[in-house]
Write the structure tokens for this entry.
Amino acid sequence: MLRESDVNVPADVPADFRSTYVNNFLKATRNTGRLMMFAGDQKIEHLNDDFFGKTDLGEIAEEDHSPDHLFHIASKGTIGVFAAQLGLISMYGKDFPDINYMVKLNSKSNLIKLNQQDPLSQALWDIDDVVALKENSGLNIVGVGYTCYLGSEYEGQMLAEAAKLIQQAHAKGLLTCVWMYPRGKAVSDEKSGHLIAGAAGVAACLGTDFVKVNYPHEESGQNRADTFKEAIWAAGRAGVICAGGGSTSALDLLQQIYDQMHVSGARGNATGRNIHQRDLDQAVALCDAISSITLGNKDVAFAERVYKGQETFSL
């Protein structure tokens, strides 16, 4: 467990906001330095595809048809932060004041395809909007997130916006996480481990605290966890967390997260649809199981027992 003196505060955090930054960091990581993000930003990114209908694993839970399912999971499950857009947090957050929130500042839908236009995701809110919501509501807003599509013809615009938002967030003592995804007509293989490592390094140059990337595919005879090590090295002091990806069985997901943490060296994970597409009890159990690995440093066998209700985990 980390103490206040263990937190590495970036140099762009003003002296007056150092204690705010440290407090936000310890809240978000539950005093571990590792981040378990419950990602709830897909309602813009994927429209209603992730919340209604069927997946490879079966029918999406009926509770997931309504946004409040996300907040019930985040309030009952063991997580570090719940990431969602500012508007959603402002509408529901007052009913769930104990959640640690990370405001997702930009988003785009999936309607415009890559063969039509390279991806561009612009900020919908700025840091002043986040600070105003935090001060007016008293909610536990601990950080902000932003997506960059590296390799898009619009990457310069997004990188410049992300860099400025990171600096402004740190100036108010807020944590930052950049979703860094290589994507666009110039990108032939967005799951290349070497390319993902490059993207993680770019995020480090922006000064972000955490960077969220995709898990690479196997390369050159290496398994995915070994391939992923390059990204951890490239990111330096920026903590790498891995996106949860498409529908995966709970047990496969737990093994994957364990490998990312204990083989690759990742500093956390970000899981969305693999949690919220389940009913509330299963979703909460999976949050607790994931956090037992990410925050509790438990093994997969223990996490499986937590998911099956044979063991409990909390912080």
